[in-house]
Amino acid sequence: MPSNLKNKKVLIGISGGIAAFKICELLRMLVKAGASVRVVMTESASKFVTPLTFSALGAESVSTSMWDPGRDSLEHVSWADWADLFVIAPATANIIAKMAAGIADEVLSTQLLAYDGPKLVAPAMNVKMWNNFATKRNIKTLKEQGIELVGPTKGHLASLIEAEGRMAEPTEVYKSIEKILQSKADLEKYRILVTAGPTVEPFDPVRFISNRSSGKMGYAIAEIAKDRGARVILVSGPVAITPPSGVELVNIETADQMLKAIEAKYKYIDVVIMTAAVADYKPKIYSRQKIKKTKSDQNMLMTKNPDIISTLAKRRGRKILVGFALETQNLKAAAQKKMLEKKLDMIVANNPTLKGVEFGSDCNKASIFVKGKRATDLPTMTKSDLAGKILDEVIKLLKRKKK
Ligand code: CTP
């Protein structure tokens, strides 16, 4: 189970249906992933599974009534302020109707009305109740409010008939929770330029010098940054992957073109993340015609490309500059040296010769160096997860610069 729910606060509202037993598994998954979980259950829900079961499985607290002695009289408000997400599972036709109408007549519906954050509803009911006009109308109302739904699915209902109305499996509910909590909009105010892929340096109309960068790391950063609300410009060398939707894509081939493309946008950018594997050298002479084979060996004269990120660092203002260091030996020392020499705020060091994180892999193993901080060595993870970690550090840098 991925542990990207660390420190997330999930409030689970359980209403009275037999599917309440499935919440035991969901709760365990959430706790295992590092989330803090509180449970609020209706009286009928506690007839199916006892509050003690959820406490024993790791819920921080379980609320079952508005009238428990010693209970905080403003709990419905304080819990609502506490949660990052309110999951209503199983959601009976009754609680769905109350949500749609704004009724607050017991502990769960009262907390729901006091909560204005994201909600996820996992309906579970008899097929006739699910297909009832009133339920359909109520579901429509919830959707119009931007409330997310997971399920119901088709399967054996409590009545043993096979029909639609069965609560989504705990793994499905968990996946939806993960998706909602990951799509935090903490980069909403920022414009981020990401470079990705190789540069291609031609020496005649059909041949070029390049490298093996797949572009996957940069594309993952662009996608996650976009999901987290940033306006993203992706300046990309030729790659074989589909660009994420909702990002502005600028295709380039050479290092010179990449620098020019960045400079055109630079003024409006808050963060530059240089994931691209820029060719350090380009052929000194470009032949307009295809170079013909001769009997002798050939030498090619190479000339230096601009160091893009160092060029940008000279006119940085308050911008955050993040580099990548691709090293096959002395990873840490070399990365730290690059960060200082190129005047970067942060550098992500990785070694593509390690097993499991080779060129083109969906995973990466990196160490993150932030100026003035100790290095963080990360384990092997997907490029999307690493993108999230990098952006978490970028956010901290942006906040630090603002002060
Ligand atoms: N970079 C750049 N312009 C270049 C070369 C690299 O902006 N001409 C950026 C890369 O995008 C990366 C960082 O600088 O973010 C480090 O790139 P890397 O290839 O690891 O280092 P180099 O400076 O090229 O040094 P070397 O190849 O000698 O390791």
Can you walk me through this structure?
The chain is α/β, with parallel strands linked by helices and 403 residues long. It folds into two domains: 9-181, Rossmann fold, CATH 3.40.50; 191-402, CoaB-like (Rossmann fold, 3-Layer(aba) Sandwich). Helix content is 34%, strand content 23%. The protein has 14 helices and 22 strands. The protein has helices at 22-32, 45-48, 51-56, 75-82, 93-101, 107-114, 127-131, 133-144, 170-182, 216-227, 255-266, 308-313, 331-341, 383-402; strands at 9-14, 36-41, 61-63, 85-91, 119-123, 148-149, 153-156, 162-166, 191-196, 201-204, 207-209, 231-236, 248-251, 271-274, 281-283, 302-304, 320-326, 346-350, 363-364, 366-370, 376-377, 381-382. The strands form six sheets. Strands 13-12-9-14-17-18-20-21 form an eight-stranded mixed β-sheet, with helices on both faces. A six-stranded parallel β-sheet has the order 3-2-1-4-5-6, sandwiched between helices. β20 and β21 form a beta hairpin. α4 crosses α6 (107-114) and α5 crosses α8 (133-144). The model has no long low-confidence stretch (mean pLDDT 91). The structure holds cytidine-5'-triphosphate. Cytidine-5'-triphosphate binds next to α12 and β17.
